[in-house]
């Protein structure tokens, strides 16, 4: 059986192809993945929404990041950390290796033709080895967060080591 999913969270025994097709082993997992596409597991903290809107219109020209996590008890996406003047390589060192996180990253992007832009990127870090319930909670909350912040450059990493300048430039190259 195959279904299309917006997230590539690995739950139970699943395999994910590059196009987002998930092959599932049981009917229960099919229901879980279908629900994660539309189900909003957690709301977004109102203070965080304001901070993210302010972040979108910041005047600084350095790389900066907001790292967010889910408060499981409150079922709420909350601010974990803010970073100014941080490279992708330094940012990956701020991410837990075995827990999911959401990031909004303002990146100074030097185009090949000399132009400079400051894209706002949403990065969902969902490392291999996370607890399945954590993966479901984050995967189910991702779309709500992306819509709330109104971002279009949405990426996912499954290994924190993948977050490099080269990886980010490659992803942003599709948005020329």
Automatic annotation (TrEMBL):
GO CC list: cortical actin cytoskeleton
Molecular function GO labels: actin binding; Arp2/3 complex binding; growth factor activity
Keyword terms of this UniProt record: Acetylation, Growth factor, Phosphoprotein
InterPro entries in the record: ADF-H, GMF
GO biological process: actin filament debranching; negative regulation of Arp2/3 complex-mediated actin nucleation
Domain ADF-H: 38-173
Entry annotated with the keyword Acetylation: yes
Origin: domain of life: Eukaryota
Stated family: Belongs to the actin-binding proteins ADF family. GMF subfamily.
Its job: This protein causes differentiation of brain cells, stimulation of neural regeneration, and inhibition of proliferation of tumor cells.
Protein name, as recorded: Glia maturation factor beta
Gene: LOC109078084
């Amino acid at each position: 059986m195959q279904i299309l999913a917006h997230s590539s969270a690995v739950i139970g025994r699943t395999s994910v192809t590059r196009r987002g097709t998930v092959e599932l082993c049981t009917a229960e997992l099919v229901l879980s993945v279908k629900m994660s596409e539309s189900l909003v597991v957690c709301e977004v903290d109102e203070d965080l929404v304001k901070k993210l809107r302010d972040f979108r219109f910041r005047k600084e020209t350095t790389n900066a990041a907001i790292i967010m996590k889910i408060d499981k008890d409150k079922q709420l996406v909350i601010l974990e950390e803010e970073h100014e003047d941080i490279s992708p390589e330094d940012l990956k060192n701020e991410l837990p290796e075995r827990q999911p996180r959401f990031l909004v990253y303002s990146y100074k992007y030097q185009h090949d033709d000399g132009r400079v832009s400051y894209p706002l990127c949403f990065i969902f870090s969902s490392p291999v080895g996370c607890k399945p319930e954590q993966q479901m909670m984050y995967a189910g909350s991702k779309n709500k967060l992306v819509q709330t912040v109104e971002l279009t450059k949405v990426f996912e990493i499954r290994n924190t080591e993948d977050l490099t300048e080269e990886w980010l430039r490659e992803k942003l190259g599709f948005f020329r």
